[in-house]
Amino acid sequence: MDLGLHRALPVVGFGLNILLLVVALVADRRDPRNRAFAGFTAALAAWNFGVIGLRSAPDPASALRWEWLIHVAIAVVPVLFAEYVRAFLGWRHRSPLLAAAYVLAAIFIAITPTRSLMVGVQETVWGYAPVPGAAYGLFLVYFYGYLVGGAVALAAAARTLRGARVTRARWVAAGILFALLGGAADFVRFVAGWERLYPVGIPANMVFAVALGVAIVRHRLVEITVLMRRAVLYALTSLALAPFAVIAINAAARAGEGDGVGTAVSALIAVGALAAGLPVLRKLEALLERVMFHREHGVRDALLELARELGTVTHVRGVGSVLTRGLVVKVPLRSAGLYVPEPGDRRFQCLARYVAEDDDVQSPPDAIDDALVEWLAARREAFIAEDEMLHAGDGPAVVEGGRSLSAAHLALAVPIVEDDALSAVVLVGEKRSGAAFSRDELQLLEAVAANTAIALRNARLYDDLRRRIEDVQAAHQQLSQSAKLAAIGELAASVAHEVNNPLLVILTHATRLRRELPDSSVTRSRLDAIDEQTHRAAKILRRLLDFARRREAALRPMDIWDVLQRSLDLVGPRLARAGIVTDVEVLDGVSRVVGDRDELTQVFVNLFNNALDAMPDGGTLRIRTEVRAADGIPCLTISVADSGIGISPDELKHVFQPFYTTKPEGMGTGLGLSISQGIVRRHEGTLEVVSERGKGSTFFVSLPISRDPA
User: Fold this and answer.
1) What is the pLDDT of residues 139-195, one digit of tens each?
2) What is the maximum alpha-carbon separation in the chain?
3) DSSP letter (8 states) at residue 664
4) Residues 6 or more apart in contact with residue 532 via CB below 8 angstroms
5) Which of 4, 336, 518, 661 is the most exposed, fewest CB within 10 Å of its CB?
6) Of 3.30.70.790, 3.30.450.40, 3.90.1150.10, 3.30.360.10, which CATH number belongs to 308-463?
7) pLDDT tens digit string along 532-557?
8) How far apart are CA 627 and CA 381, in angstroms?
9) CATH code reported for the domain at 3-224
């Protein structure tokens, strides 16, 4: 190899190390990973700087001083690398092995200027090399032992890490392995005396730096700006330009030493080398751009397209479906979920989620941890699940929330803010490529979240408009049904009035026949049955007429048992046909309330009919009375309980709303309970309900007790 290139290689390696050091310092210096990474790369830079001086040393004395600097830098490399591994893996406590590394580093630094580590230097084909002392073997064991241990720890941790940290750990471990192979080759070359074999330790160190650079740029080991990312790209490209630069440098050096013709020829060679190298530089830069960042460009395009699609969705669940499926398919991700707060509850529940079809990752959770929701509401920025060290100051609950997300292969939690309040959260799964999200992508995700907020608001407006239209249509249908029922009621009253005349004729003739027959006659007993049932039919018709008759309510003291008995007479035949048993227990001596008999009859008829509809396969209707106090006023409470299908919690919130019904179309108007509640309130009472799905319902009618005696 040309000696000019031999001298240029450590310069390139030093430049890469300085670049990585700057990247770490530009990022958040509070992050322990950044600090450990900066220290580690600083030691590598000092090592390369010493090699630059060594390869330019004019005599053995100055070469020995450069060797001292090199070995001091090498002595701290294992310690700083161990610190970096500890920070990367999130280990909080320093182990005894790390403490021992500090002690060993201090010892080897102390003996570096003595003959225990190096007796001196010797000149070789490739420059000066150290003459090992008695402790040099222990120094090598210490150096390679800690590097191998760190690589093993990273490789073992890769099995439990999540997301981009797995890929980063593999890149770093691969770089260490390559550096170790280069060092081992140099050691074998030195022991075997193969002086003409090129020392590959520095090139291996450069490959290690390149691996770290790729881990940074491709998988965001630390947060870096676009400028730093481009700088790494240009550094990697410049490495390929090194041969052209060396040819140009050597040609320029010879041009200064030769005659006029030689100078001109050398100058032409230098210009030609640079001219040939620059196009290669541009092409290689474009190639690296495509290789290193093609997925990021694809992610940007996908997120922009998704933001446009969200504006076309007109219902809330559709927004969730488009968002989650779009993220998973277009980015692509392993999974995604959209979470919104439940009405009356601030807990964020899953509205929509999507998992990649050919991925075995678990589905996003049903709800988001409350501590994480509070963090998002306060910070209004994306929560990066794997940055556990950054969230250490936010409390153990937040750290545990981040671990839960990482365990589910979720990389981010992105807040959606409406009217200066947290309205939804997007859980973003890991990229299927294994890469982390760049800062630009995080900004785009926040823009998508802003578009999602607008889409959700618009969708809610559309949903509300649809509900209002449906309510108007339902109200129109219910009003039509009510009108029909009113007409049927009037017709039934008319029919009842007309039926009374034939009943009167039947009753008159039956009475005359009974008088003409002896008491022992069988026919007389049959006439008794006709008389009894005719009176019963007449009684039902009278109550039906009273119930249908429209008049002003008249509140007066009355016996509630008469109202219950009257209501049961009206509904009793239907209850019997449906196989429903009536169980009635009323308090003795406490039954008088103030009310209107007809209106209260309407209330209990409605309750009995609802109980009948709730027990299509038969059951038991229980009616009980008890005394309760409401705001210090004694009230008689009548409970009407059925053993039917019950009412769900969601339906229970609406049962007293006008036109709301859970019955099939044509079986209810949705007005019965609303009207009943209005009647009870006019009586200064209350109508309440307790129900459980599958266990029946109980309605409680509480009315003030009358103080007037019977």
Assistant:
1) 888 988 888 888 788 777 766 655 556 666 666 666 666 666 666 666 666 666 666
2) 163
3) P
4) none
5) 518
6) 3.30.450.40
7) 778 777 766 766 666 555 555 678 88
8) 58
9) 1.20.1070.10
